[in-house]
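Fig. S4 source data, part A: sequence.
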Amino acid sequence: MLYRVPARVKRFWKMYHELENIDAACKSGQTEAMVVMDTAARAGRTVAEQVYERLKADLLTGVFTPGAALLTRELLARYGCGISPLREALARLAGEGFLVASGHRGVRVPLPSCADLDDIYRVRILLECEALELSMKHGDDHWEAAAVAACHRLERAALPGTGPEEDRAARAMEWETRHRAFHAALVAAAPAPRLLRLVEQMVEQTERYRALRLLHSPSDMLMRDITAEHRALLDAALKRDPHAVALLREHLTRTWTFVADLFKRSEI
């Protein structure tokens, strides 16, 4: 027969272990107040990070309408957090360009524009081509294997313009996740962490526009032979062919041009 441990005993042992942790930390040079403050700080950062990730995902997937003002009370209810973590997340996203500060009116979702699109893609192409060149120079067999695996996963994902209409948003986001992983794998061997961070920031900025393209453009316009483009880019990179950089530039420019054309035809 199983013996049920009384609740008061469980509380005792929980308190005992907490005091043990504090005692061990004090012996290492930390005061009890320092331990409590450090624990609270870690918890605060965790909540703020969670709010940041969830809000960023909502922005990238088009949950909020471009140009819409984000009301604090609605965000607090949506993410179930306090005001401090929310403010930290909003400030971080505004600093990264995902939100726009509106003075005393808070923040709003930035409006997509051709000028912004051109600026983002121009910078991304310069940075990512440089990263690919370095990655091909320094990549080893582990890098090659990771790039091949990422390409295979991308090829196995359903293209956004296929399948039932009701699943289009979910398919678009899944394909986009694998597409981003493939591009990241190609440049991962570049021994330039600052450069890779800048590339990642530009990729995140272009994701806002690619999500609009995948979700709102006619399916037949999405069906250029994107799989062949990725395969050719991978093959050239694995061969350390300098032409791989030109292929990457062409690949990104095609998407840039396509989204710009959508703006011109007012289809977004």
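Fig. S4 source data, part B ends here. The chain has a mean pLDDT of 80.
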